[in-house]
Amino acid sequence: MGFHTELAIRPAKRPDPMREIRRLKSIECGIEAAKHFALGEGYRNLNHGSFGTYPTAIRDVLRHYQEAAEERPDKFIRYEYPKLLDESRELVANLLNAPTDTIVLVPNATSAFNTVVRNLVFKPDDVIVYYGTIYGACEKTLDYLSEITPVEAHRISITYPVTDDDVCSALEDKIRSLRNDGKNVRLAIFDTIVALPGVRMPFERLTDLCHKLGVSSCIDAAHSIGQIEVNLETLNPDYYFSNCHKWLHVPRGCCVLYVPKRNQSLMRSTLPTSHYFIAVSQEGKLALINPLPPSANSDFVLNFEFVGTIDSSPYLCIPSAIEWRSKLVWNGLQGEQAILGYIHGLAREGGAKVAQMLGTEVLDNTDKTLQNCAFSNVALPLSWNDVVGGDSKKAVKVAQWIARVLAEEYDTFIAIIFFGERFWMRISAQVYLTIEDFEWGGKVLAEVCERVKKREWDD
Predict the structure, then answer these.
(1) Rounded Cα distance, 322 and 130, in Å
(2) Among candidates 19, 63, 16, 17, which has minimal Cα distance to 38?
(3) Whether this model's pTM surpasses 0.85
(4) How far apart are alpha carbons 343 and 333 in whole angstroms?
(5) In what order do the strands lie in the sheet with 152-156?
(6) Of the candidates 262, 195, 228, which has an alpha carbon nearest to the alpha carbon of residue 339?
(7) Average of pLDDT values for 269-288?
């Protein structure tokens, strides 16, 4: 049989994927908002911060783009996707108050961090400084860099609760001490909000301190966008990255990476290296065919536009997530202000309630700044000495046992941490939760802690 010779029929235009979201009326934070999520019946998601989740309306948008890519792969990936990606970059740049050409998207914060530190060229006596509360995978990356490059990684030890002044002084003292030893401090790494325990760092002051001392700042803001306000124009860090899939209600995985123009020439390659990488010298090399159409974007932006074939549909869901969030209301507020007001207030009220139920305390410092976010950390009514005889390894085993029991027997999850010779829990506030969910969590934790005292964890 021969090929069809009839004129091709132009495909019908796909419907606007955000149509249903735009039609939504105001959504009250709490019980009403919970109806918009696909959490399993009976499941209480008290650990939103680890992996995030997103409304069903945004799930429909995700599937819309996935289907578009399957229906006409080349047409969508080569020609439609870049335009949609630019729209997402522009909207997220507006949210962070940053120029669009300083914003690119990568799968997650770990990828963003690796992109930054693996692009920097280190010399003997170069040093990276970081706090002991750094995310584990990031510290492992520094360990690896120390093996394959001349750079040294120096940890700053802090144990919460500490004041913001103490945190800032620790960084300044470490930098000055290293310089006195003849070291060149290239980069300082710190969080906006520490993952474990979930506490806010004085990242604005730390960034200013880096400017003052002439050290590049790398801000791990994995828990930032959608949880706290950030103005990158005012903050002016050297590198900043934040997961959109944690608190901005974007599907996994999607992370914004900000690099100001002054540093973009240093970020020469993506991970892995993309089609748009520009080698220092092309002498003697044949020109390679780029599979993507021409673009007017900068070399930096183009480098990240198409790194390799993955499902990049989550990147295209940023506009729908921002639109959905604009529908949220609480206490006379709407949109981002309503969301931040609700989750911050719920974290404080809920944390205090759980601490009261357990007869313990909430983790905070004398400045009362650690809780300026949507996390709350509450001490568990367990004595380190009584439960494990002061054995740190057994304490970690107890923490892991509690977490597993919560997931397998109580249909929930709460991050359990052991530090400062105490057991703590980290609980997340979110628009689909209420104070009743925190009270339920407190009751469950009290029950599980009694089981720990009976040494069920040691069976």
Answers:
(1) 32
(2) 63
(3) yes
(4) 13
(5) 103-106, 255-258, 239-243, 216-220, 184-191, 126-131, 152-156
(6) 228
(7) 73
